[in-house]
Write a structure and sequence with these properties.
The chain is α+β, with helices and mostly antiparallel strands. The protein has helices spanning 65-70, 76-79, 94-100, 127-131, 146-157, 166-170, 180-190; strands spanning 2-5, 11-13, 17-23, 26-29, 37-46, 105-111, 115-121, 136-143, 206-207, 220-222, 229-238, 241-244, 248-251, 258-263. The protein has 2 domains: 2-62 and 212-263, no CATH class; 75-207, no CATH class. It has 7 helices and 14 strands. The longest helix has 12 residues, at 146-157. It is globular, with a radius of gyration of 19 Å.
């Protein structure tokens, strides 16, 4: 029995994605648990992943309300990069923004369910793609800050989605006819001249394989706000979801800060 606070699973890219669940002082190699029964028990406590204090409710995947209201990690520009003002010296925490917003950012095209456009720091490639469950991705543009990457994303969002259909992603219902190299060429033609200098030359496509024994036909999301105990045979891991053989899925990142006990000794 392992016990600790849930946090986003670190993932590394190999022949397939390798996942680790950090729980307390233990680093659990999740790929090794495929095909085995895994049980979680929610211990009725949530810790803020920013300040560590106990909170009755979690906001934005693990923050207490005061931290949600003030932390730079929950600024509006996290979801809408075009609203970032760090390049103008405006931020909840300029030191944090210097490390996270005023760094090179990548605008990318990815296939998770269908085609989508997204933004991430250059140091978060391919981690961001893995977290979204993308099976293919291609860098599109490189910018010197988050705001500029967000503006390019907004321009492309008029022609393609910036969302992932999580149900299709987890059932592996993806459009395999989409050619990312062709989509990058199309996206390039859609940009105004002020952005074309940021387009990345070349067409390096990254393909990502996930540790999944079998994809379910349908999925049902479960969580600790309504269930104290969640268990089942682990049949796969994709994005930040654990996929069980009965089609239920548990989003680990959504439950950041939740104190749980985990058993896989069956």
């Amino acid at each position: 029995m392992k016990q600790g606070i849930l946090l986003k699973m670190p993932a590394t890219l190999g022949d397939s994605v390798n996942y680790v669940l950090n729980l307390g002082t233990d680093d659990i190699a999740m790929n090794e648990l495929l095909g085995r029964r895994v049980a979680f028990e929610y211990l009725d406590t949530i810790h803020c992943i920013k300040c560590g204090k106990i909170t009755r409710k979690s906001f934005a995947q693990g923050f207490c309300y005061p931290c949600f209201s003030t932390a730079p990690e929950t600024s509006e520009c996290i979801l809408r990069p075009e609203l970032c003002q760090a390049q103008e010296g405006v931020s909840r925490d300029m030191r944090w923004s210097e490390q996270h917003c005023l760094q090179d950012h990548i605008v990318y095209l990815a296939l998770s369910s269908g085609l989508k456009v997204g933004v991430t720091r250059s140091t978060q490639v391919p981690t961001r793609w893995i977290d979204q469950g993308a099976w293919k991705a291609i860098p599109f543009a490189r910018t010197p800050n988050r705001h500029l990457a967000g503006r390019i994303e907004v321009a492309l969002k008029e022609h393609m989605s910036d969302k992932t259909n999580w149900r299709n992603m987890l059932t592996n219902k993806v459009d395999r006819e989409i050619d990312l190299e062709q989509e990058k060429s199309r996206a390039s033609s859609l940009l105004s001249d002020e952005y074309t200098e940021f387009i990345i030359p070349g067409n390096e496509v990254t393909e990502i394989k996930y540790p999944v024994i079998e994809y379910p036909e349908k999925v049902k999301s479960v969580g600790f706000d309504k269930m104290r105990n969640i268990e089942g045979e682990l049949s796969g891991i994709k994005g930040q979801y654990l996929i069980f053989s009965d089609g239920t899925v548990l989003n680990i990142r959504k439950h950041g800060g939740y104190m749980v006990a985990m058993d896989y000794s069956f």
